[in-house]
Structures are given as structure tokens and as C-alpha cells.
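Retro notes - structure team

What went well: the batch runner handled both jobs without manual restarts.
What didn't: labels got mixed up in the shared folder, which is why I'm recording both outputs here explicitly, each with its sequence directly above its C-alpha cells.

Job 1
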Amino acid sequence: MLVPSPYVAGNHQFYNASVLKDAGAGQLVEEKTLLENPEVLRDTIRGFFGSPMILESAAKNAARLGKPQAAADMLQDMRILCGGSR
């Protein structure tokens, strides 16, 4: 469940969360929705735990978006920027 903060510049957390939601990797719930209707939190959590298929699907979709080599790639780029070799 993704609850982006509405108090950040450019609402970028909402847009980042939307990418995950659109990929089926999570469910986006806006903070204002939770403030207006706190039961949404409970219902959303129950929905996840009530359906192992939903959790499994979200996990698989999130894994597809992952970049497991990101840290190694960044380190390599930093070495090159600092005059090192590949």
C-alpha cells in the first residue's frame, strides 16, 4: 500500500507511487482519503491479507520493476567519473 506525502515539492511521491500502482505493484491510497475515511486503511489491508493472489501478484510485479544491479552500476559509473577504468 502506497501512501504518498502530499507535502513534497511537485507532488513527486504521488507520481512515483502511481508508476508502481499502474504496474500492479501496489495500491495507492491518498492521505486525504485516509483522513476523510480511516476505514479505507483497514479495508485495504484486509484486502491484501484476504487474497494471497493479490500479494503474490504485487510482489512479482514489483520485482519486475527492480534493478538488482543498480548499486554496482552506480559504483562503476563513479569509478569512471573519477578517472578509473571499467
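Job 2
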Amino acid sequence: MIIDVALQLFEEKGFEAVSVDEIAAAAEVSPRTFYRYFPAKEDVLVVDPDVEAAMRAALAERHPNETDVDLVARAMITGLTARHPDRARCGYHLLKTTPALQARIHQLVWRDQEHVVDALLTGMPRTPEAELRARVITHAVTDTIRVGVAAWIQSGLRGSVVPHCEQALTFLREAFTY
């Protein structure tokens, strides 16, 4: 409910013009309750426990003959599509125009990349070479997905984000084969 109320207020007034107190009042919760779920106002749009859970579950389930690139890509797309589509569209629209949200999403991406690196290293020795490989793959796929999302945003958020991400991933896979 807090997320839905916040999104409505952000759409009506703009992200910067809405305070946490205003969100809490409209959601009929205290500011303290708001902060129990969201450490900062930006997190209403960029932190989603369902997305994180979906992504972690996908990372934990390795498919036969799946490459590390494909595992990371599948996990990230699973996370992207775990959000309610209307919330995702609103969030991406606000993200496109709000520097504070852009900064926060980059912080969270860096945090989440560490989980992906750990997943790639599961069951293997953590040598410097293995860690470097896992980081290169993680960052390459993360940035590729980000470019796919940006293409989706530029298209006017029409349809699903997945085809844009898949197209970007095709280019990445082609680059790895050169």
C-alpha cells in the first residue's frame, strides 16, 4: 500500500515535491513505519523484496548446459519481470527524470552485483582469476541489461522490457564470440 500511495503522489506532484511524511499520512502509517520498510524515499521505487527474491532464486537454480552469461542474464530478467508492470513503468519513468533515483539505483546495482559474483563462484575455488572472471561477466551482463532497459524506456515503455534486454544480450553474446 505504501508503494502504491507513493507512486500516485509522485505522479501527481513529482518525486522531489513529495515528502516521506506526506506518503506516510496518505498510506495511513507513521513515518517510522515507512522507514521500517524503506530506508529512504528513493527506496519506495527501487527496492522490491519480490524482485530480490526472484533474482536470488533464479541464481540458485542452474540449468543444464547454461553458461555463466546465460545464468546471470536469466536471473536479471527474472528480477526485472517480477515487479508489477504498472509499478515498473511508473518507476522507470521517474527514474529517467530523477537524479536522486538514478544515484540510488546505481548503489543497489553495485550491492546486487556482489550477490551475483558469489553465485557464480559457488562450488569453485575463489582464486583471483575466478573472481575476476565472475566480476567481468556480472558487470558485462548487468550493463547490457541496463542498456536494454534504457532502450525500452526510450521506446516509450511499450510492451515488455524483455525483448529489449534480449536484443542487447544478443549483441553481448556476439561480442564474446569475436
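One thing worth noting from job 2: The radius of gyration is 18 Å.
We'll revisit the folder naming next retro.
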